[in-house]
Design brief:
The protein is mainly alpha-helical and 418 residues long. The protein folds into 2 domains: 48-324, ABC transporter involved in vitamin B12 uptake, BtuC (Orthogonal Bundle), CATH 1.10.3470; 327-402. The chain contains 18 helices and 2 strands. It has a two-stranded antiparallel ribbon with strand order 1-2. Helix 5 (105-129) runs antiparallel to helix 6 (134-156). The longest helix is centred in the middle third of the chain and has 27 residues, at 255-281. It is globular.
């Protein structure tokens, strides 16, 4: 049957969906959340909570996570689990380091993406063609990639000017844009420390001042993915491979080809995230990813395998990561924010009938609240663990509403549904 027939066949009996939330509800929730953060800022005096510097740091931390999450979205929507995102990001950091110091930041992006494609292709061959267990293949890539990157860095960077056995020579940063006039005006309002208005000015100034073109590229890729996967026939066919591959094949879809495309695209996105890490920090370094591939995977799960959701999750984790770079007052105020957020989650879960989950969220929220009021600062040893703590809390408390692709991680052989 033709591609048009596939579209009709798959769309005639759509799965049941929950009630769609209007954009106005999201807007009201965002304003309410910002008001709570603003109130905490006013009460604690932690002005870095919503400063332009914090916003910029959060974006820098969020983009690699979002790219890893986007890679996970593509591959899992096609039915292939990819926990090798971390290894593919490592390959991307090396590729960016190799090309970046020789030919500039955009060459770094291209080479990082290409090495990510190599990792994705290996995973595709193993899982799609040879039917290797997806988890085993991903673990193998995560083990092989850091070793390969370290070996290559010793070969190519040890004798290069400014390089070393575990780091590349310096890489020039990508171009950044600033909106003239608007940045200064927003900075004036931010400096007044007014309730809500100054917080909004700080956030807007953070995204209109020294904004990296790589960040703009990441936003466009997220928007483009949403359109391609949910608004095009190609996306419908790709997602059908993760929901009902046997049915898709019976309607003329080349399931293997779409799985290959998805997994290779996944590697490209992960490699791009690694390249962003290297370019934004000014060089490749061994161990640079620091588990961001796994946090990106967590952001994708938190986002319920949707582009908007994963972007929100990556921003959340990026924000908590940025807090680790702020002063101690901001990190301490983060405890109160987490306490309030967990109590809100507890109320929502209680209204949904999840009493046990509600009780756990409330208990943890009270614990964070007690920690805030009983201390003056967070021990430095625990500051760096903030993103991982938030990851565990978010995944544990959001797990009740997740809806992964039906055939994600399941092996598929051609003609299986015959």
């Amino acid at each position: 049957m033709t591609g048009g027939g596939l579209s009709v066949g798959l769309e005639t009996a759509p799965p049941k969906r929950g009630r769609r939330v209007s954009p106005m509800v999201y807007l009201i929730a965002a304003v309410a959340g910002l008001a709570v953060v603003s109130l905490v800022r006013v009460l604690t005096g932690a002005n870095d909570l919503t400063s332009a510097g914090t916003t910029q740091a959060a974006l820098t931390a969020a983009v690699p996570l979002a790219m890893a999450a986007l890679g996970g979205l593509w591959t899992e929507r096609a039915g292939v689990v990819n926990i090798g995102l971390e290894g593919m990001m490592v390959l991307g950091t090396f590729g960016a380091g190799y090309a970046g110091y020789q030919w500039g930041p955009w060459a770094a992006v291209v080479f990082g993406l290409l090495l990510g494609v190599v990792g994705g292709a290996l995973h595709a061959v193993a899982t799609v063609t040879f039917g290797v267990d997806h988890i085993i293949s991903g673990v193998a890539i995560n083990l092989l990639a850091p070793g390969a990157a370290l070996f290559l860095s010793k070969e190519y960077f040890a004798k290069a000017p400014g390089g070393g056995q575990k780091q590349s020579p310096p890489i020039e940063d990508a171009q950044k844009i600033t909106i003239p006039g608007l940045s200064d005006w927003l900075g004036t309002i931010e400096g007044k420390h007014w309730f809500l208005l100054s917080d909004l000015a700080g956030l807007l100034r953070g995204v209109t001042t020294q904004l990296s073109l790589l960040t703009v590229l990441a936003v466009l890729l997220i928007i483009g993915t949403a359109w391609v996967l949910w608004r095009s026939p190609f996306g419908l066919r790709l997602r059908s491979c993760g929901e009902a591959p046997a049915a898709a094949e019976s309607l003329g879809v080349n399931v293997y080809r779409y799985k290959y495309i998805a997994v290779i695209a996944s590697g490209a996105f992960a490699g791009l995230g690694g390249a962003f890490l290297a370019v934004s920090s000014g060089q490749y370094r061994d161990g640079q990813t620091g588990g961001r591939g796994f946090i990106g995977l967590a952001a994708m799960i938190f986002g319920n395998w949707r582009p908007g959701g994963l972007a929100t999750g990556a921003t959340l984790f990026g924000y908590t990561d940025a807090m680790a770079l702020r002063n101690s007052a901001a990190v301490h105020a983060l405890l109160l924010l987490l306490a309030i957020a967990l109590l809100v989650v507890a109320v929502m879960q209680y209204r949904s009938g999840h009493n046990v989950l509600s009780g756990v969220a409330a208990a943890i929220g009270v614990l964070f609240g007690w920690w805030f009021f009983a201390s003056d600062q967070v021990p430095p040893e625990l500051v760096g663990a903030a993103p991982y703590v938030v990851t565990l809390l978010v995944l544990g408390l959001a797990s009740q509403r997740l809806r992964p692709p039906r055939m994600g991680g399941e092996p598929y052989r051609r003609g299986q549904g015959a």
